Amino acid sequence: MEHLLFAFNVLFPLLLLAFLGGLLRTKNIIQKPFVDQLNGFIFNIALPVMIFHTLASSDGFASITVGVFIFVATATLFITGIGFLLVRLKPWDKATKPVVLQSLFRGNYVIIGMPLALRLGGQEALAVLVVLNALMIPLTNLLSYVTFSLFQDNQSDKTSFSLVLKRTFFNPIMISVVLGMVAYLFTDTYTRLTSTVTVIPDTMAMIQATVTPMALLAIGAQFQFKKIQAVKAILVFAVISRMVVVPLMVFSMAYLLRHQIDFSQSWIALVALFASPVAVASVAVTKGLNGDDELASQLVILDTAVALFTVFIAIVWMRSMGLF
Fold first, then answer.
1. Which of 66, 156, 207, 321 has the most CB atoms less than 10 A away?
2. Residue 244: how many CA atoms within 13 Å on its side-chain side?
3. In this structure, what are the phi and psi dihedrals at residue 93, rounded to the nearest 5 degrees?
């Protein structure tokens, strides 16, 4: 009962905020242009500030072993490989297959994962996840390009490749990761500066505090179920694969390897990485690479709804096993 109550207290506030976003959209208190602007603020300002501030002032690097990095990268590549073998056998068109495959490895570990890590383990857990994001952000972006190129007739699309590279290395989130690492490496200088000019960390802390509520309101406001019946079989396969099979497989492997790899500080980050729904950014990437962006939107919506149950189960199981 204690574990159920813990998971409920962690997840239910997130659910209420998402529900509030949907209610505000239904009542036309907020509309699509505002939601788009809100998403713009989150991705371009609030999230980068959170990532930079957390990296610059954290000891997350010391909490992660090399084995954890290797495990996370290997698990992501393994999921992609198995997913490719399964998806290519499906009788779906070439615009559909890469969207489903992308949904298997591209988790929403920024919008959902970071608030979840923060609520589960505080700043320490968030710091570990942010450090792992430095690996996952470029890896998943490059895997997205490979995924879509595998199912395209013309695999020499230089414009798409340059677009993905730009989004990988020159987007606000990745830039904030790099700057945060620089600040971490020069921690003495950064600490002296911020302790003298306190307006800098104080302002960043206030901006950081807006990430969770605003992101969840935006996600809730985007919950519009359209044309689900026409692609029901595809959605069922993709959602079950991402929200049930992937976390079950990864957590089982991690548990079996726990004596070889020190996951003691990383279990919460693993939940955020592999049990979170498909990333909101997957829709923009899909559109830029000529995939079915409407299907990608449906997957974001349904994965997020199902995550309220699957993440709950993952938290209860890990708490009962004494992992965090």
1. 207
2. 9
3. -80, 170
CA distance 281 to 272: 16
- Spatial distance between the Cα atoms of 126 and 117, rounded to a whole number of angstroms: 5
For residue 75, give both structure tokens. 């698990």
DSSP 153-187: S----HHHHHHHHHHHHSSHHHHHHHHHHHHHHTH
Q: What is the pLDDT of residues 20-62, one digit of tens each?
A: 988 998 899 999 899 888 888 887 898 889 888 877 877 656 6
**Residues 306 and 277 sit within 8 Å (Cβ to Cβ):** yes
The first and second tokens of residue 138, run together, are 């470029």
Per-state percent for the chain, helix, strand, coil, to nearest 5: 80, 0, 20
Whole-model pTM?
Answer: 0.78
Inter-CA distances, 242 with 43, 249, 265, 317, Å? 23, 10, 24, 18
Domains of the chain: 2-320 (1.20.1530.20)
